[in-house]
Amino acid sequence: MKKLTYIISASSIAIFILCALFHFLYKWSDYNLLVGIIAPINESIFQHIKMIFIPIVLYYLVTYFIFRKNEMININKWAMYPVITFLITSIIIIILYYTLKYGFSISSMFLDILSLFIGLVASSLICIKLEISKNSFEIPYYISIILILMLFGLLTLFNFYPREVNFFLDKVNNTYGAVKK
To answer: Residue 1: its pLDDT value, please?
Structure first.
């Protein structure tokens, strides 16, 4: 049990590092649109939310397969953690970004990065609380998997068919779609 809480705690740092790598993956791939399915294709808020999804799912998937036997992981709880982490982190990023940008006219890359870290830490604390609680809420793992697949589908759909609203606008390149070389 204690080891699982350490694994969840480590998620904040590991996912943060993976997100930093994913941020540049599209450019490193020479603007390959297939890579753009999992990596941000522009500098919009949406693409930065999409950027955190795969690192979160990867972290919990890999740690499940590494520790499932020795740590007796409850698959129903463990499968919920990527969904919880993605939703909580996304909400925190969006709230902080829009509050700072439109409430206080503050635009800062450091604060944007900090909001990601705050979101990851907050979500890992929630997941730890669920892990250590004997009476915590859990849903069947297949429902979490369905939610993960639905989220991936929606992120992919909006990746290729973005709405023309500020959430999808890349203000650096003045586009709603993929940045090309």
So the answer is: 65
